[in-house]
Amino acid sequence: xxxxxxxxxxxxxxxxxxxxxxxxxxxxxxxxxxxxxxxxxxxxxxxxxxxxxxxxxxxxxxxxxxxxxxxxxxxxxxxxxxxxxxxxxxxxxxxxxxxxxxxxxxxxxxxxxxxxxxxxxxxxxxxxxxxxxxxxxxxxxxxxxxxxxxxxxxxxxxxxxxxxxxxxxxxxxxxxxxxxxxxxxxxxxxxxxxxxxxxxxxxxxxxxxxxxxxxxxxxxxxxxxxxxxxxxxxxxxxxxxxxxxxxxxxxxxxxxxxxxxxxxxxxxxxxxxxxxxxxxxxxxxxxx
Length: 288
Prior knowledge:
This protein has about 290 residues and is an alpha/beta fold. The chain contains 10 helices and 9 strands.
């Protein structure tokens, strides 16, 4: 096998073997490598991670793989947007290589290993999507071991995911530095997401209120309002704004995601939310 250099201006590795060959060539020259894992449908938020990677390493590999193991049977795996050609155009001049494997390449017949990270993966998203983080940890571990980059960069919008990956890398002694990239937001503050395209114009207007309520709730907690009171009032505002359901609105210790036993936010704290409007589920977070 060899790199695909004909489909796009940017070379594409379709196999782990070709990815490793390309990375090995750079490493032999003493050059550093950054990996930015994505599921494609790239937007400005993804590209900001690629720009950060370019500042940190000589070469940037962007993986594009819609990972089936992190979707539950009732979730939107088949509907998840796939636009490899447009993604390749967006990455031209920014990345050195795209890694775009098939599901068969990443999960060959007989694949039977799962990576589970207990503790930090269990609350919040873990309560509503109990199989999700095992799928994330499994595919990220495979991507890190396939590319063996010096650093890997993940967006802070998926804060819990970032904490799960950092814990996994630490626990398994994977020699990769994990960096978080700041959340990129639309003009009204809505966190950028590939799922935002599903919002109707009316839903999109309502969605812009989520970050406003989140920020004001965080400000109350920082000012001494008990956490339970702040999140109760914030949750009521989210539903009153027009969201259909609120999965969670929580203020937690930033790294462990454990609750504050004294009902006061202190130290390194984070507010996290997941709410659904129409058929679209939105998540967001910010520091306290």
